[in-house]
Design goal:
Layout: H1 16-22, E1 25-28, H2 39-47, E2 54-62, E3 68-74, H3 80-89, E4 92-96, H4 99-102, H5 107-116, E5 127-136, E6 141-145, E7 150-157, E8 160-164, H6 174-183, E9 200-204, E10 208-211, E11 218-222, E12 227-235, H7 237-255, H8 267-283, H9 285-289, E13 296-300, E14 308-310, E15 317-318
Parallel strand pairs: 3-13
Antiparallel strand pairs: 1-10, 2-3, 2-4, 3-15, 4-5, 5-12, 6-11, 7-10, 7-12, 8-9, 8-11, 13-14
Helix pairs in contact: 2-3, 6-7, 7-8
Bound molecules: fe (ii) ion (FE2).
C-alpha cells in the first residue's frame, strides 16, 4: 500500500487546511489497512523501538485529592505481542514517538498526508512534521488539554470519542496558553463539564481522521477496546510566531507582573518579544521551569497481562497527558 502513488491516502484536499482552522475537520483515510499498523506489524514495531523514543504510562489509582496517579515505566523483556496484550488488559498507554525517525519508510506517509492536504507549499507551508503511534487500553482517557503545534489524529484500530472545544475563552485563556508554552505542561487548563455543551464530539473509527483549529482544547475517551491512533504535529511560520508571543507574554506576566495585551505576530512589539524569549531560552531559565520529567518506576509484568512490577522509586507523579 505504501508504495502505491495512484490511490490517495486520504480524502483531504486543498480546502482542508482552511476548513480545519475554522472548526474540526473530519476526513477519511486508509492507513488502517496498512499491515504495518495491524497487530503483527505493531508488535514488530514495538520490538525495534529504542528506549529513548517511547513512553509507557500506567494510569493508576486515584491519588490525593482524587487525581489519578500516572507513572512512567519500561516494557522490560516483553515481546511486542505481550506488550499489546498488556495494554489490552491493563490501564496503560504507549506512545511511540517520532516514528519516522525509527522507521524512515513511515516518513512517506506523513509527507503523503500533508501533500494531499496541499499543506507543504504556500499558503499553508507546514514543516517540522512529527508522527507518533499511540496504543492505549480500553476505557483510557486523555484529559482536557491544548497543544501548541498544529495537530491531527488518525484512528487505526478501535474506537474513541474525542471532544474538541473552541480555542477561545472560557475554554482556553491567554494565560492558560502562556503557561503551556512556559512549562510545557499541556494539562494546566481549567476544565468545567459545562464546557461539553459547546464541544464538537466525534466517535472516531478506523479509517477516520481529524485535524482541528490551532490550540483548540480537547479530551479523549476510549471505548471498551484496544485503541491504536496516529498522532500528527506540524508547524507553520504563523504557528511559530504565535508560540513566540505565548512564551514572551508568559514571561512578562509571571516575572514582570505585566499582563500583556498585544498578541501581534508582526511589528516592533513582536520583535522585542522574539528577543526576550530568545534571551530566556539561552539563559536556561525556561529549562528550570520545565523540569517535570517522570522517573521510570515500573516494568510490565511478563506473567500477568496488564500487570506491572513496581521498581520502587516511589516518586509517582500526578496525572498529565501525552
Ligand atoms: Fe492533544
Amino acid at each position: 500500500m505504501a508504495n502505491s502513488t495512484s490511490v490517495p491516502l486520504t480524502s483531504l484536499s486543498a480546502d482542508s487546511p482552511r476548513q480545519w482552522q475554522l472548526r474540526p475537520h473530519l476526513f477519511q483515510h486508509r492507513l488502517h489497512l496498512d499491515p504495518r499498523f495491524a497487530r503483527d506489524g505493531l508488535s514488530a514495531l514495538i520490538e525495534r523501538y529504542p528506549r529513548e523514543h517511547y513512553a509507557i504510562v500506567h494510569m493508576g489509582e486515584q491519588g490525593a485529592g482524587g487525581r489519578r496517579v500516572w507513572r512512567e515505566g519500561d516494557i522490560g523483556a516483553l515481546s511486542g505481542q505481550q506488550v499489546l496484550d498488556a495494554i489490552e488488559h491493563g490501564r496503560l498507554w504507549l506512545n511511540l514517538r517520532n516514528a519516522p525517525e525509527v522507521v524512515p519508510q513511515l516518513r512517506e506517509l506523513v509527507t503523503g498526508i500533508f501533500t494531499e492536504a496541499h499543506a507543504l507549499a504556500p499558503p499553508v507551508s507546514s514543516y517540522d512534521h512529527l508522527m507518533g503511534i499511540l496504543v492505549s487500553s480500553p476505557g483510557a482517557q486523555v484529559y482536557y488539554h491544548a497543544d501548541l503545534p498544529g495537530q491531527g489524529l488518525l484512528q487505526l484500530q478501535g474506537r474513541k470519542r474525542i471532544y474538541i472545544y473552541p480555542p477561545r475563552a472560557p475554554f482556553l485563556t491567554e494565560e492558560g496558553l502562556e503557561n503551556i508554552a512556559l512549562k510545557q505542561l499541556e494539562v494546566g487548563l481549567r476544565y468545567d463539564p459545562a464546557f461539553d455543551a459547546e464541544a464538537e464530539v466525534f466517535e472516531l473509527e478506523p479509517g477516520q481522521g481529524l485535524f482541528w483549529p490551532l490550540n483548540a482544547p480537547h479530551r479523549i475517551e476510549n471505548h471498551d477496546c484496544l485503541n491504536v491512533s496516529m498522532t500528527l504535529e506540524y508547524w507553520t511560520q504563523d504557528i511559530r510566531r504565535k508560540h513566540i508571543v505565548n512564551l514572551a507574554n508568559g514571561i512578562l506576566r509571571h516575572n514582570f507582573g505585566h499582563a500583556p495585551r498585544s498578541r501581534a505576530i508582526t511589528g516592533g512589539a513582536f520583535h522585542a518579544k522574539t528577543a526576550l524569549q530568545a534571551l530566556w531560552r539561552r539563559s536556561g531559565r525556561l529549562d528550570v521551569l520545565r523540569k517535570h520529567a517522570r522517573p521510570i518506576d515500573f516494568r510490565l509484568d511478563p506473567d500477568t497481562p496488564g500487570g506491572i512490577i513496581d521498581l520502587g522509586s516511589a516518586l509517582a507523579n500526578e496525572g498529565h497527558a501525552a
